[in-house]
Amino acid sequence: MPTPNEFEISRRNLLVGTVTSVAIGASHGANAQNAASRSHAPAQGMPATAKVSFSVNGEVRALELDTRTTLLDALREHLHLTGTKKGCDHGQCGACTVIVGGQRVNSCLTLAVMHEGDSVTTIEGLGTPEHMHPMQTAFVTHDGFQCGYCTPGQICSAVAVLDEIKAGIPSHVTGDLTIAPQLTNAELRERMSGNICRCGAYSNIAEAITEVAGRPA
User: Fold this and answer.
1) Model pTM?
2) I want to staple 85 with a disulfide (CB 3.0 to 4.6 A). Which of 39, 67, 95, 101 is the partner?
3) CB under 8 Å to 78, separation ≥6 — which residues?
């Protein structure tokens, strides 16, 4: 049976034991931190990031982004292509419309990391003030904008709409799915309904698109 003295700990031994424990804990913590750094794992409370590369207006761009970054924010905040507008940020107004792989998308509703290897066209890639795209020229001719905030999305969507019709892709108002859709007033308004113009320049926009559609390819 041990005597009470065998359980007694001197102050010196207690301090030595405490210092040793702290040193061992610090060593293990440093090793864990180094391992996390080598594996590129995010620290606790830090967002996860990922590398993504895609072509934007014909130029390959490589970024490392928070995996929650939308394509819209990647274009505006990281690539400084501010022609693409942030309107509602809920996919309801169409101001952020860009063309990805030939199809129009609301860039506020899709993550940038989902577009690895894709081809993205923004309003800056359609034309320049010196060499405007025919749709841009038509919008100017028919006064298809007032404040202009929705115009980049309207133009990108309009260009894609004409390509959709040429490809024979039906819409919700296409009456006969066995024949190629035509650019009727109902088709045009249905296909462009996701792009809101708060200034109300809809008739002018429709005239601009109809003019471009009537030009020989």
Assistant:
1) 0.78
2) 95
3) 63, 65, 69
